[in-house]
Amino acid sequence: EGYDLAAILKKNPDTAHIPIVILTGVSHVFEVRSRLEKSWVDVESFHTKPPDFAKLIETIESQLAKATAAG
């Protein structure tokens, strides 16, 4: 499951710096946040399907810019 993978990536010092943006089929924001909290995962952003592609691209570009600036 994607939430488990995100947790593994965030707990590993070699991959913890990688920004994670989740695209999920879960339609209720509350349920997504609940799953993230249960997995103890701090992701940068999540979007539900069908995505608003303009917002999704904006999020990805923003996260890439932050990652690039951080070094």
Key traits:
two-stranded parallel sheet; flat; mainly alpha; 71 residues
Record the SSE blueprint.
Layout: H1 2-11, E1 21-24, H2 29-39, E2 45-48, H3 53-70
Parallel strand pairs: 1-2
Structure write-up:
- This protein is mainly alpha-helical and about 70 residues long.
- The protein is about 55% helix and about 10% strand.
- It contains 3 helices and 2 strands; from the N terminus they run αβαβα.
- The chain has helices at about 1-10, 30-40, 55-70; strands spanning about 20-25, 45-50.
- Strands 1-2 form a two-stranded parallel sheet.
- The protein is flat, with a radius of gyration of 12 Å.
- The termini are far apart.
- The mean pLDDT is about 85.
Portion in helices: 40-55%
Query: Strand-residue fraction?
Result: 5-15%
Task: Describe the largest sheet.
Answer: 2 strands, parallel
**What spatial form do the alpha-carbon principal axes imply?**
flat
Please identify the structural class as seen in this structure.
mainly alpha
Task: Tally the beta strands.
Answer: 2
Give the integer mean of the pLDDT values.
84
Please mark out the parts with pLDDT under 50 across 5 or more consecutive residues, or reply none: none
SSE string: HEHEH
Cross-sheet strand order for the largest sheet = 1-2
**Radius of gyration from the alpha-carbon trace, in angstroms:** 12 Å
The total of helices stands at 3
State the end-to-end CA separation.
30 Å
